[in-house]
Amino acid sequence: MLAISATLAHRRGAHADLNSVLKNCGYSKQDILSAFENIDDAFVAVAERKASLISEPLAARPATVADVRDTLIAFGRIAWKEYSTTLVGLLRVVMSEGTRNVPLRKRVYEAGPEAVTLRLREFLSEANEKGVLSISNAHLAAEQLIGRLREPLYQALMLNPAASREEAPADSIKATIDKFIHGCASPSSAGP
Q1: Alpha-carbon distance 126 to 134, whole Å?
Q2: What's the rounded Cα separation, in Å, for the pair 37 and 64?
Q3: What is the DSSP letter of 13?
Q4: Contacts 24+ apart (CB under 8 A), 101-105
Q5: Distance between CA 161 and CA 167 in Å, rounded?
Q6: N or C: less crowded end of the chain, CB within 10 Å?
Q7: Structure pTM?
Q8: Nearest-CA neighbor of 76 among 1, 157, 177, 154?
């Protein structure tokens, strides 16, 4: 799984299908099948691993606006990095294979993006319930924030694949998070 993940993150090759990825990571289909029930399971495992990594900071409990800000900035930095590297390659494979393998596309979506959105929605709901933020629709708020953080993924896939940025511009992430928090700061948390 680590070799597949590293191959997907490598910028040199725009891996477009499962066979190319397996060839470039040095494993045969038989090697993958010895560890996973089928090859699709290996790619779903990568999506699950990345979702877990991105969601890790969201395990924090929001008690103040500063807690929420710090947590979301940590979440944003990890998301930005993953959306600049491995997830670009994974989505290229899924887009390539998706026309022939719709179940793979669905499974990767559920294991990856959907899982991250669910965890962020839970975090935002908890912040709302505690009165730290005022969010009328946590699902919509989570989708909006993730959409803002997916800029490097969009750039890498649609605009200029060679110019995708691995390193997160800290000021950009902080500005995105600050704008998001400002838009849903609870009147009680704003202070006098």
Answers
A1: 11
A2: 45
A3: -
A4: 101/40, 103/40, 104/40, 104/43, 104/44
A5: 15
A6: C
A7: 0.78
A8: 177
CB within 8 Å of 129: residues ≥ 6 apart: none
Residues found in the chain: 192
Q: Per the structure block, which two tokens stand in for 149?
A: 């953080």
SS3 23: helix
The amino acid at residue 72 is L
Distances (CA, A) of 44 to 3, 15, 82, 148, 152: 14, 16, 16, 24, 22
* C-beta neighbour count of 7 within 10 angstroms: 22
Instruction: Write out the two tokens for 175.
Output: 């500005």
Per-residue pLDDT 10s for the chain (192 aa) are 677 777 777 655 555 667 777 777 777 778 878 888 887 888 888 889 889 999 999 999 999 999 999 999 999 888 888 877 776 667 667 666 666 778 888 888 899 889 999 999 999 999 999 999 999 999 999 999 988 887 766 665 555 544 445 455 777 888 889 989 988 865 554 443
At 122, the amino acid letter reads E
To which residue do tokens 């979702």 refer?
Answer: 51
How big is the chain by its Cα radius of gyration, in Å? 18
User: Any bridge partners for residue 149, and if so which?
Assistant: none
Closest CA to 71 of 31, 120, 25: 120
Nearest to 47 by CA among 8, 84, 100, 12: 8
